[in-house]
């Protein structure tokens, strides 16, 4: 990885910094704002259980689909305009959900919202690479920490706001942040971009298709799958597992799930800074593998002996999420490569995440035990071995292609 001279985060690129923070906040606050007040929504309009299930399944499915679509859109419209469009659609979808007269409109609004978020997920890492090539680690730490805060804040305030002003106001309030997120990128889009971003390469044809033939791209996709699938499975099933196998109360299981989620916040600060140092990348995979396997083994063999420790250890592989956000940027040499790699890794990772909790549940239903699902979680962690071995070698997807096939 080539080190660039670091310059001030603020001077000449304050708008981009604010834009990254506001888009990141909108991406996660929009996802986390409905579930805390779903009971209030269902008390007002009839929302069948199957619709609730679809709403819960929609995020990873939309993220996977738009991980593939977004690089194609970026070649036509550019990163800044795509970020603006994503936030505009998100704002409209959030407002539409707030005024939904029935479950159908609520489901459509939620699906459109998650499609917009899927686009935003893909464009943010390349935007950081374009505007902050000398501060990739710091800015990705800011980005991933903002995601963590934005996932944590809505559950705290959504219910009090709904109690005071109604669930429609509580849902619609988050559209304000999506509108605000558009302002910096609109301003930058109408300026001379040469002052603010790195030079844009001519789009290479079929960049996304090429990634299917590169082990490095698949290794980053596997990294994203480990993090996203394990997190989705734990948020869906960890409290139930802890009640059944560790004998904790429902209140304690909820508190332990909060502890699991809280582990991600310090990791979101620290891991991007570690990744940019290069030589520690392989050790991140080792730590994720060892802690994940140890947590699974603890829950299988001695669930009551050190339940808190097993939950903490299970939370540590979440660090692969901010790691892969940085790696998307440092393992691509060109802007077009970064966009395609972001879309490819996130699409494949979220596809696994969409299926994993459902498969987890089917395995439990079929065996009547949590041993099978936990072993499946342990098998997922084992993907860190080949993924880490490939990613730690260094280089970029462009280098890998040129070694195998000639000019990128």
From TrEMBL:
UniProt domain Major facilitator superfamily (MFS) profile: residue ranges: 12-396
Entry's transmembrane regions: 49-70, 82-100, 106-124, 136-159, 171-190, 211-238, 250-275, 282-302, 308-328, 340-362, 374-395
Its membrane topology: Multi-pass membrane protein
GO cellular component, one term: plasma membrane
Single Gene Ontology MF annotation: transmembrane transporter activity
Keyword entries, A-Z: Membrane, Transmembrane, Transmembrane helix
Entry superkingdom: Bacteria
Localization: Cell membrane
InterPro entries associated with the record: MFS (IPR011701), MFS_Cyanate_Porter (IPR052524), MFS_dom (IPR020846), MFS_trans_sf (IPR036259)
UniProt xrefs under PROSITE patterns: MFS
Record has Transmembrane helix as a keyword: yes
PANTHER family linked: 2-NITROIMIDAZOLE TRANSPORTER, PTHR23523
Protein name: CP family cyanate transporter-like MFS transporter
UniProt organism field: Microbacterium telephonicum
